[in-house]
Design a protein that fits this description.
Strand order of the largest sheet: 1-4-5-6-7-8-9-10
CATH class of the largest domain: Alpha Beta
Radius of gyration: 22 Å
Mean pLDDT: 96
Number of strands: 20
CATH topology of the largest domain: TIM Barrel
Shape: elongated
Strand content: 15-25%
Number of domains: 2
Length: 385
Amino acid sequence: MRFRDALATPGLTAIAEVKRRSPSAGDLRPDADPARLAAAYERAGAAAVSILVDERFGGTWDDLRAARDAAAVPLLAKGFFSTEDDLRTARGAGADAALLILRDLDDDAVRRLLAAAGDLGLDTVVEAHDAPELARAEALGAPVIGVNARDLSTFEIDRRAQLELVARAPRDRVVVAESGIETRVQGAEAELAGADAILVGSALMRSPDPAAKLGELLSRPLVKVCGLTREEDVAAAAEAGADMVGFVLVEGSPRRATEVLPAPDGVLAVAVCVGDPPAEAADLVQLYPREDGKLRARDAALLRAGHEVGKVLDQPWQEHDPEHLARAARAKGRIMLAGGLGPENVAAAIEQVRPWAVDASSSLEREPGVKDHALVRAYVAAARG
């Protein structure tokens, strides 16, 4: 499979990187074995593997050759390439794609290199760091655009700026969020903003088991604890490993919250509403339509910055549909499964439906709006197990 096609498969994909050191962080894994790592990444689900071939990162072209001998996934050669000879060397060493950094190349050079890469059967990642560079990548017709969160001049990471650029990137291109991703929630944020893939290097290289870390970043479903009204329950959900915390901002709900409470770093806050989006700031909005005679309609849209990014498939309000899981299993797209889930049944529901996320609320309570922390821990463990 070609590099671009491997990244464009459904769901969030990953380019797992091999690099021994970083100019910003120093030594990461000086003894890294590119052959062993590339094979391990492939087994862990990487869509592609990135190999640093620049000596400033402790890399060589032999690293790329070793990875090519060990793994069948597409390989990305990463370095500071500026000539057709660089691309020929990359192709000869086994690369399927090469990095082109817009900061270092003018438009004529990029056009020349894109044409040369095409002649060689080599894909490219055209890397942008800011809005003008993103506009250049689009105008140049780059099929794969990398959006790097790291400023290569200061080495600082700005993930908010990255997510804004990812959201603005053209949807007819493959978009890769590069740098600054260390948790699966951060990967999910990039995914929801519109990234097809993430490129992860330092977080893997620092991990005792890089392949296991990659598997964790890609693992689904995400886990949401909803109906929270107290800060101590938010903290308990986060400590248990929940990825999302939900706040019901609906008059008449037995677990209504007066506001979206602060979520810890690495946890997404979700405002749950009926009819209209909230005034309160939240990372995501779970918006149910109104339905006469009921607090809410059955299903909801999951919104990011006002744009629908998924569907919430729920039980009817205060009713039980025995075909709920079968219905959800037939659904297409990014699905959050809700309705009747708890520690005792969430694993079986995940096995049947394979959702992007799961959501539980009343089954985790001591009383409406007050969570039982032991049940929260058991639910998160079952969902992530």
